[in-house]
Specification:
Elements: H1 2-10, H2 45-53, H3 59-66, H4 70-79, H5 98-105, H6 111-118, H7 122-131, H8 135-138, H9 156-170, H10 186-190, E1 205-209, H11 229-237, E2 242-246, H12 265-280, E3 285-290, E4 296-297, H13 304-307, E5 310-314, E6 320-323, H14 328-344, E7 350-354, H15 380-398, E8 403-407, H16 416-422, E9 428-432, E10 438-441, E11 444-447, H17 460-471, E12 475-479, H18 497-507, E13 514-516, H19 527-537, H20 544-551, H21 557-571, H22 578-583, H23 613-617, H24 622-649, H25 655-690, H26 694-724, E14 730-731, E15 735-736, H27 740-760
Parallel strand pairs: 1-2, 1-13, 2-3, 3-7, 7-8, 8-9, 9-12, 12-13
Antiparallel strand pairs: 4-6, 5-6, 10-11, 14-15
């Protein structure tokens, strides 16, 4: 089952760089005929379009999309109670902000109009949908069908509905506070306390991803703004000595004979050198995440020589082909390419590899080697090992001091030992610490198959792999999440400190050489990072009360310690399963809409949850899933009350820090409270639609109404917190899951839902 799930979520492959995509190439999902969702809480699709983009796209651009005047756009906006548009933050149209805009319009515009809205070419959007960390998968692997959208003068009925929206919007006036600019993380991050100086840190490697990096092609940016100096400085203060960036090998090398490359590769190499030099000032090394060799479209293989490189067909849409690594030339190209990169960037720290998941790479990467004439007679372990050895050889030839971390994500367990025995002796093996850990939540037994904070590692898989690695003479790295995970990815930190400390103590006994602290989610420079290292290095001396005193004061410390206990015990009840992590509504939280009619859309990978309760609850019965989430919410409510006591007891200097942590604990509580209400609403909606008994139907409507009323309260509570804190709703690879405008839309959606419910209760 786990393998099937992994294949579902990670069987995505990569298209080529812009220069290698033919101008006639279809954008992924362009021929889809599945109808888009109609958002009936707006008077029209046009109204929805203007509303959703009012705070992220200039009115002139909206007018261009609608083929109308800016005045007409403003007239519609004002009719819904929207204020005069302020200057739009240019980040929304950059590689670091466009995903939120794209998600807002996924069900509203066809591709041609999306290109105008985003200011992108077809080639650029095609690239981003594939390369920007599973973006097309996160959007559901289909583009909902939308007819072109043009301005139409609103009808009388539409104008009346817009007036209702304006009235409902005014109800939120009491929840409106001055908004802190989205993406303005510098001040927030700078406010984090420095960690105590750690002498003789036992962890040779402390690796993390940027909290707000561009994922797809970060080295194209001349400033490499994914890692500004203030972030590097703060990460260094938190004990971090290595950072990583996503790369695609062909973008870092020139075309070479029959092999791909990019004409502008030198620009990326130059920018990489800049980053390496800047990071070095803070004692930080730069690592490249590599998933190679990337598959190519069929058009690439347009000569007989290139046809000799073809491996298996697959990936997204099933129309790309692997570069077969059983052809010696492919491995030779990889070696020489990595040698070029590492000799051109002398201070580069190293790489970590993923070779059996993510994008289609070798013929064995998605276990299709039997379909390849060359590979069908080669063992799985040899193919995986050979790819890693080729990367290692190239890196070491370019820079003998660089490290090669070989990540065993999604390896076939039956071949793992054989792969490990074939790896170079100076390589490092990296394993997810908590993988395969047996757990039981709400009486349902399962195993961890993704990153987790609620489940404390190490698990049996990592322990076994590390044992083999140490026997083979390799260094070992534990991949963990110390700040947050896909258990709740839209907050910077989950303060489950007892669980973090327990994990650190457990790993301190395993001769770990390094820690990778985050995937794309979880790179915030937090106290969690400091705590983990403090405990790891002093497992028998460091306790959490002592840590609280060091970071707060004696008066507030006991209450903060109690809060952490409640947060940890509550979060340990999380109904963990990979399907919940990837498809659940926890990232959108209160911002996720209620749907009075089933959408029939499947929830997408950490993308759009829709109303797909079956996927959210995964292996858990509905009531069990809800009950476990209630335990999580209760833990954060109880912890919040302890932080209130801490705030009252603390000195003036510590109160701002405690207030920020109170606010974030409340946000977490509201997220879980909201998804409980959403699950109950969907459960009762489905009961209502399927029931024939009048009393049963009326009871379901009553419960749905209660859920909607409580959600209105949640919106009013969450909105000021989100306005005040730009980290709320944000995660680097997804950018903003939601913004304040989405919470305001949810309030409109709830009022519209309540009108429908009250009408439906007039049953014959």
């Amino acid at each position: 089952m786990k393998k099937k799930i992994l294949c579902l979520f990670f069987a995505v492959i990569c298209l080529q760089g812009y220069s290698q995509i033919p101008s006639t190439l279809e954008i992924p999902g362009e021929r889809t005929t599945t109808p888009a969702i109609e958002f009936s809480h707006f008077p029209s699709r046009m109204h929805a379009f203007i509303w959703r983009n009012w705070t992220t796209v200039p009115a002139a651009r909206l007018a261009e999309v609608l083929s109308t005047t800016e005045g007409n756009v403003q007239k519609v906006a004002f009719s819904m109670g929207l204020n005069k548009q302020k200057k739009i933050n240019p980040v929304w149209s950059s590689a670091q902000g466009y995903i939120t805009v794209l998600r807002h319009n996924w069900h509203l515009l066809p591709y041609d109009q999306l290109l105008v809205l985003l200011g992108l070419s077809r080639e650029e959007l095609a690239w981003r949908l594939i390369e920007d960390d599973f973006l097309f998968v996160k959007l559901g692997q289909l583009k909902p069908y939308c007819t072109p959208l043009y301005f139409q003068e609103p009808s009388q009925h539409m104008r009346q509905q817009a007036t209702d929206i304006s009235k409902w919007l005014r109800e939120l006036d009491g929840s409106i506070v001055p908004e802190v600019k989205r993406f303005s993380f510098a001040k927030d991050i700078a406010s984090e306390n420095k960690r105590r100086s750690l002498e003789n840190n036992k962890l040779e490697l402390r690796l993390v991803f940027s909290y707000f990096a561009e994922f797809g092609d970060p080295l194209k940016d001349p400033e490499v703004s994914s890692y500004p100096d203030f972030l590097l400085k703060k990460l260094s203060e938190k004990g971090i000595n290595a950072i990583w960036v996503h790369t695609v090998l062909r973008t870092l090398v020139p075309p070479s004979g029959i092999f791909p490359g990019m004409d502008d590769y030198a620009d990326r190499i130059s920018n990489l050198n800049k980053l390496v030099k800047r990071a070095d000032k803070y004692g930080i090394k730069v690592y490249l995440y590599v998933n190679e060799p990337r598959a190519m479209p069929e058009d690439f293989f347009n000569t007989q020589e290139k046809k000799d490189l073809i491996g298996v067909k697959g990936g997204q849409g099933g129309n790309l082909f692997s570069l077969c690594t059983s052809n010696k030339m492919v491995l030779d190209w990889m070696r020489s390419s990595f040698e070029k990169v590492f000799s051109s960037v002398p201070g580069l720290g190293g790489v970590f590899t993923i070779t059996a998941s993510e994008n289609l790479t070798s013929c064995a990467s998605h276990r299709k080697q039997a379909e390849c004439e060359r590979c069908k007679g080669v063992s799985y372990d040899k193919i995986i090992a050979d790819v890693n050895k080729a990367i290692h050889e190239g890196v070491k030839k370019g820079n003998p001091a660089a490290n090669v971390l070989i990540y065993d994500w999604a390896w076939d367990d039956n071949y793992a030992e054989r792969i490990i025995r074939q790896l170079p002796k100076d390589a490092w093996l990296m394993s997810v610490s908590e993988w395969s850990l047996p757990i039981e939540r709400g009486g349902i037994k399962s195993k961890v198959g993704e990153y987790s904070i609620s489940s404390v590692g190490p698990g049996p898989r990592a322990l076994q792999y590390w044992k083999w690695a140490k026997e083979a003479g390799l260094k070992i790295v534990a991949k963990i999440q110390v700040n947050t995970t896909w258990e709740l990815g839209s907050v910077p930190v989950i303060p489950a400190m007892d669980l973090i400390a327990e994990h650190a103590r457990n790993l301190s006994n395993e001769s770990i050489n390094g820690i990778m602290f985050s995937w794309s989610v979880g790179g915030y420079p937090s106290k969690n990072m400091s705590l983990f290292q403090e405990v790891f290095n002093n497992p028998n001396k460091m306790d959490l009360l002592q840590f609280t005193v060091q970071n707060y004061d004696k008066e507030s410390a006991p209450y903060i310690r109690n809060a952490w206990k409640y947060f940890s015990s509550g979060f340990a009840e999380y109904p963990y399963h990979i399907s919940t992590l990837y498809t659940g509504p926890q990232h959108m939280g209160t911002a996720n809409l209620l749907y009075i009619h089933p959408t029939r859309y499947k929830s997408t990978m950490v993308g759009i949850p829709y109303d797909d309760l079956d996927s959210w609850q995964s292996i858990y019965p509905t009531d069990t899933w809800i009950h476990q989430m209630e335990k999580v919410a209760a833990g954060f409510d109880l912890g919040y009350r302890e932080l209130e006591k801490a705030f009252k007891a603390a000195g003036k200097k510590k109160r701002p820090t405690i207030q920020k942590e109170m606010d974030r604990a409340k946000v977490i509580n509201l997220h879980f409270s909201s998804i409980i209400l959403q699950a109950k609403f969907i459960r009762e909606r489905n009961n209502y639609l399927n029931a024939t008994d009048k009393d049963v139907r009326l009871n379901s409507l009553k419960i749905m109404e209660e859920c909607a009323i409580q959600e209105k309260i949640n919106v009013k509570k969450l909105l000021p917190l989100a306005l005040h804190d730009p980290t709320i709703g944000y995660e680097s690879s997804n950018q903003y899951f939601y913004i304040p405008q989405d919470l305001k839309e949810k309030y409109i959606n709830l009022n519209h839902t309540l009108m429908w419910l009250r009408n439906e209760r007039q049953l014959p």
